[in-house]
Amino acid sequence: xxREEKRIELLQEFVSxxxxxxxxxxxxxDWDNTDVVEDFDDLxxxxxxxGAFNIEVIYYGSAMEYLTKNDxxxxxxxxxxxEFGYTPDxxxxxxxxxxxxxEDAREEWDEYSSExxxxxxxxxxxxxxxxxxxxx
Length: 136
What we know:
This protein has helices at residues 3-15, 25-28, 40-49, 60-70, 75-83, 93-110, 113-135. With 136 residues, it is mainly α.
């Protein structure tokens, strides 16, 4: 196994330990281009570009349930809708729930910042150890 293959294997193992509600992190990572990922910001950029945090809530009932649990007053969702340029004539419960759920996923992902950076900080040492073991 090459160093790059080992790097991907370790990254896959690490990512499989992370969980963000509504997001399949492993699906949204471009495993063929992880060599350019060196920290939390790089990984976040890859996830954002792949649409990982664009979560769509479909069906009125599901949307209303999510809004009832997460934004009863609709203050947050209407604020996000305004930030993204939506007007009252082009919003509905599904859009508002999708905006909130997507924002919640981004915030949940952000909580992993230190853990992800620590992983990448230690990764090169692990790869060096792996190469030394392989040479023996």
